[in-house]
Each structure stands twice: as C-alpha cells, then as structure tokens.
User: Which sequence fits this backbone?
C-alpha cells in the first residue's frame, strides 16, 4: 500500500491499554503528530480498561473498529495470571488472523553489554502451545491434581510463517534465517514446524541461507554470540520467550517493538506488558511503542516518515543524551517525548 499523499488520512484504531499504556501512548501520539504522521485515530478500550468501562476485556467496539481500519496501535493489555479472562492480546491475534509476530531488535544506545545487535525474531502467532487447550483432571478431592495442556501446529500454519520469514528476509536485505525448534523432544509438534520451514528454506537457496537451532541451545548462543543471528523464525511459545531475551540484548523491554501481521490487518505494539510496578509514575520508556509506530509507518507505505522518526530517536538518545531510567538516563516519559519532538520538528523544518 502506498499512501505518500500528504492529504490522505489513514484510519487506524488506537488502544491506549493498561498500566503504563496511557502514559506511553500519550508520548507516542504527540511524537507522531509532530512528525505529521497520516493517521486518523479511532480510540477504543480493551484489556482491564475495557473491563472497567463496559465489563468486557475485548469490547465489540474495539473489534468493529479494527475490522474497519485493518490497522491498530495498541498499548499493553493486562491479563490476569492463572484464572480470570483469556488474554485479549491472544484473542486479537486470533480474531484478525495475525499469524506473524515481527520483533526487530536493534542497538540504539551504544556501549551497553552488547553492541551492534541487529536481529529480528519472527514468531508464529496463532498456533503451538498458545492455543489454550488445557484442562485439569481431579483426583479424590484435589480438583487440580493433574494439569494437561496440548499444542497444535498445522502444516499450513508452519508454511505460512516460514514463507513470511523468508520473504521478510528477502525484502529487508537479510542474509540468513535460523529455524528454532525443539524437534529432538517434541518430535511431532515442533518437528512439523522444523521440517516445513526447512522445505520453504530450500526454495530460497542462493538468496537466503538457512540454519537451525534447538531452542535451548539458541537461548544460550544468544547470550554468548548474538551477532551470528539475523532472522530467527520460531513457534509461538519459543518466540515469546526468545524475543524477551533478545530485547534484553538491546537494553530491555523499553526498547523492543513488535508488529502482529496478518493478510487483512496489522496491530503494532510494544513487546512489554503493562508494567504495573511503574504505572502512574511517569517514568516508563515510551520508545518501544514509538518504535512500533515507526514499523506501522513503514507498513502503510511511509518508510520516509519512519526513517525520519528513527533518525530523531537516534539524535535524542545519543546526541542529546536524553534517556529514561531503564536505559541509564533520568528523563521522565514526558521529558523524553518532549526532547524527541524537538528533534522531529527540526527534521521536518
Ligand atoms: P511487563 O513487560 O509489564 O514488565 C516486566 C518488567 O519490565 C517490569 O519490571 C517493568 O517495569 C519493566 N518494563 C516494562 N515496560 C517498560 C517500559 N516501557 N519502560 C520501563 N520499564 C518497563 O511484564 P509483566 O509484569 O510480566 O506483565 C504485566 C502485565 O502485562 C500482565 O498482565 C501481562 O499479561 C501483560 N502483558 C501484556 C502484553 C501485551 O499487551 N502485548 C505483553 C506482555 C505482558
């Protein structure tokens, strides 16, 4: 989709989210406004905010809005641990068939524990252990004596995500895809994923190299030598875990954006959750969500604005040395956004 017409507005659903969500979303929207981003926002509630507003963690108004716009910027949504309602994030991915979760990790602040990290985790987003097929078997008076969970991978789902990962590599100048699995133990569930992804890899031979790793070895190698990785493609649960690990390589969750992509819709978000421990304190790093909005700009055919935003981010972090606490600075969420807006406006002027 190309929308390089300044007068054209792109309708997009806006979900502030829970916890730090409203704080970081306010920062992101102010930055996008300064940039002249072409979005026409349709605000909706979901998660705990949806429960408080209408008793529903995924209200029909939010679903209808995304059905119409096919595009959303979303803050983190709280999910109760253990019991309670099912994750609204998982339901959104299912509802809109957002089968690919793209999580780029790029070093933005040099001099950390790891420098020059530039890798992308592509996580299958609809299958695997996330399908939520779980139950308990009671024994005697213990209702929860046994817990059983099943994963589901389909050949079609594995084909789709593998093809997405290789196409992503080709379209983004990437050289290698590493297929990550646990096919030595989960021979059927992740064996199907591995075998299918390798078949797809053969179609890209000469353009994109293929490697494979067992997930535990991959987790260790990401700590020892992350530079060997380029694009990682993996199943839902492994992708969930590894992408948080990868976020740690570039300064933590405050620096990690993600896009949930399907054929008919896309939802962009920070990888992190609602951060209840710092919510309301005004100190959350808004960068993950702002970087997610840069991904969103590229997605709608405005890589020019995305590049301008990334340049302003680099200047703010590294020339002005304005950073939030989680990446070694002292700026509040608002101070960081103000500094970034100054740089964005300079770039626009
Ligand atoms: P979390 O990501 O919210 O927080 C983990 C740690 O990272 C905390 O110490 C937090 O303060 C810190 N952190 C997170 N974002 C930060 C930011 N922007 N700036 C600075 N520090 C930041 O993970 P959690 O505590 O396990 O989860 C809290 C809630 O969020 C749960 O209900 C969970 O289900 C939900 N969650 C939602 C999403 C999503 O909406 N995509 C993703 C993950 C977790």
Assistant:
């Amino acid at each position: 989709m190309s929308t390089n017409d300044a007068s054209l507005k792109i309708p997009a659903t806006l979900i502030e989210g829970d916890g730090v969500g409203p704080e970081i979303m306010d920062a992101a929207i102010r930055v996008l406004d300064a940039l002249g981003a072409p979005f026409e926002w349709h605000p909706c509630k979901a998660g705990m905010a949806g429960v408080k507003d209408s008793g529903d963690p995924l209200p029909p108004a939010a679903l209808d809005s995304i059905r119409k716009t096919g595009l959303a910027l979303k803050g983190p949504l709280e999910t109760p641990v253990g019991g309670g309602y099912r994750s609204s994030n998982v339901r959104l991915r299912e509802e809109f068939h957002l089968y690919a979760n793209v999580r780029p990790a790029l070093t933005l602040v040099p001099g950390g524990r790891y420098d020059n990290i530039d890798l992308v985790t592509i996580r299958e987003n609809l299958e695997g252990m996330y399908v939520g097929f779980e139950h308990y078997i009671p024994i005697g008076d213990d209702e929860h004596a046994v817990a059983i969970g099943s994963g589901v991978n389909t050949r079609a789902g594995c084909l789709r995500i593998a093809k997405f990962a290789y196409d992503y590599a080709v379209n983004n100048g990437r050289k290698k895809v590493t297929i990550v699995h646990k096919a030595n133990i989960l021979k059927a569930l992740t064996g199907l994923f591995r075998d299918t992804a390798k078949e797809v890899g053969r179609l890209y031979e000469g353009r994109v190299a293929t490697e494979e790793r067992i997930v535990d070895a991959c987790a260790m190698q990401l700590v020892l030598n992350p530079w060997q990785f380029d694009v990682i493609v993996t199943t839902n649960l492994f992708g969930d875990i590894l992408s948080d690990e990868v976020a740690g390589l570039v300064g933590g969750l405050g620096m990690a954006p993600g896009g949930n992509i399907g054929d008919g819709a896309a939802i962009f978000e920070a990888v992190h959750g609602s951060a209840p421990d710092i919510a309301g304190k005004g100190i959350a790093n808004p960068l993950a969500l702002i970087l997610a909005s840069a991904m969103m700009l590229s997605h709608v055919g405005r890589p020019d604005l995305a590049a301008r935003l990334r340049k302003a981010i680099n200047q703010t972090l590294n020339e002005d040395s304005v950073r939030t606490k989680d990446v070694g600075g002292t700026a509040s969420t608002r101070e960081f956004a103000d500094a970034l807006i100054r740089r964005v406006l300079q770039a626009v002027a």
In short: The two ends are 27 Å apart (CA to CA). Residues 15 and 74 are 5 Å apart (CA to CA). The longest helix spans residues 155-171.
